[in-house]
Amino acid sequence: MAIAAGLALPLAGGPDAFTLVRIGAEIMAAAATPAPWRARLTVQVPPWAGLAGAAVMGILNVTPDSFSDGGQYFDFGHAVAAGVQMAAEGAAIVDVGGETTRPGSRPTEPAEERRRILPVIRRLAAEGVTVSADTRNAETMQAALDAGARIINDVSALTHDPAAASVIARTGCPVVLMHMRHTPDVMTQRARYDDVAAEVVAELAQRVAAAEAAGIVRANIAIDPGIGFGKTAAHNLALLPRLALLRGLGCRILVGVSRKGFIGNLADVADPLARLPGSLAAGLHAVAMGATILRVHDAAATVQALRVWRGVGGIG
User: Fold this and answer.
1) Could you give the dihedral angle defined by the CA atoms of residues 122, 148, 205 and 37, in that order, rounded to the nearest 10 degrees?
2) Whether pLDDT at 69 is above 60
3) Which of the following is catalytic: 102, 207, 260, 275?
4) Whole-angstrom Cα distance, residue 240 to residue 263?
5) Bond prior to 15 in cis (omega within 30° of 0)
6) What residues are paired with 223 via a beta bridge?
7) Which of 51, 274, 291, 304 could form a disulfide with 286 if both were Cys (CB 3.0 to 4.6 A apart)?
8) DSSP secondary structure string, 178-201?
9) Which residues contact 27 (CB under 8 A, 6 or more apart)?
10) What does DSSP say about strands 17-18 and 20-23: parallel, antiparallel, or unpaired?
């Protein structure tokens, strides 16, 4: 009704809509949005990895030291059972990673990364689970795809390994390009921005352009603003209300806020395992701002929250 009355514009072609837009420091009515921005924000974004609507990506860390669940799924049997359960709970994708990239972490040898994740990927793929491989190493990407993974999720946006872009282009698989400045071991200490939202958008635009130049089709690219990666809690809180700016890049938006430190700061909850309510609140906000994929630890709760949120909003 608001769209028909000229009070709102469809966000990425709908069904969501927006009534106000902030460009730089200026806030204006949707109807006053300048033509270039209007085109970017309202254009229909094509499906990515077969997903057209909001979906959940379950996190499966096959590592001994991830920030909230380190060691929980380091055992092969536990990892496979958890991945199958996430899919049964409604996770459209299970994201399998073998390298910890939390703030301050050191790199994992790619051979060790592959030893951890490849058996899990093979079994989950054989069980019919749609698997993504969370890796920044080209050799691991190729091995994961050969083992049955269908998606690559790269926290470095294909900058860590010079051979990574060619793997994605050659195989034609969907890829997630995440924003992260520097490397995990130093990214927090070097977090400096004048306008975090504008800079994240500009830098992801550069990565999308570089991917296209390498032969990767834009429809195969999803973008992730990298909440908590090279960003302080204040940066995260400045970025999340302006996520809709990422819609201008014409790619699906993936957001990972699950259990992260800024939620603990806001809610005064030190234990990451006790941050589910805050994770749901932040995730639903991200969807309201245009995200279509939520990367989460708690798949069942997030799937239910999304269904209810969209249902009560009349979105379907």
Assistant:
1) -110
2) no
3) 260
4) 12
5) yes
6) 177, 253
7) 291
8) E---S-TTTTTTT---SSHHHHHH
9) 20, 21
10) unpaired
Beta strands in 171-305 (DSSP E): 175-178, 221-224, 252-255, 293-296
Q: Is the pLDDT of residue 65 over 70?
A: no
Summarised one tens digit per residue, pLDDT across range 284-311 is 999 998 899 999 999 999 999 999 998 8
Q: Encoding tokens for residue 131?
A: 């698997």
Of 116, 150, 231, 295, catalytic: 295
For residues 124 and 135, the answer to whether their CB atoms sit within 8 Å is: no
Q: To 5 degrees, how large is the angle CA 303–CA 309–CA 314? A: 125
Query: Is 170 considered catalytic here?
Result: no
Q: Are 284 and 70 in contact (CB under 8 A)?
A: no
Could you report the per-residue pLDDT of 122-139, keeping only the tens digit for each?
Answer: 999 999 999 999 999 999
**Average pLDDT of the residues of the chain:** 90
pLDDT digits (tens, 9 = 90+) for 186-195: 777 888 999 9
Per-residue buried b or exposed e for 196-217, using 16+ beta carbons within 10 Å of the residue's own CB = bbebbbebbbebbeebeeeebe
**Residue that the structure tokens 């946006």 belong to:** 157
| Spacing of C-alpha 294 from chain mean position | 6
Q: Where are the domains of the chain?
A: 1-44, 46-312
Going by their DSSP bridges, the two strands 9-10 and 17-18 should be labelled as antiparallel
Q: How confident is the model at residue 68 (pLDDT cuts 50, 70, 90)?
A: low
For this structure, is 231 an active site residue?
no
Residues 6+ apart with CB under 8 A from 212: 218
What does the alpha-carbon distance between residue 114 and residue 112 come to, in Å, rounded to a whole number?
5
For the domain 46-312, what is the CATH superfamily, name and number?
A: Dihydropteroate synthase-like (3.20.20.20)
Sorted by sequence, the CB contacts under 8 Å of residue 64 that are 6+ apart come out as: 70, 71, 74
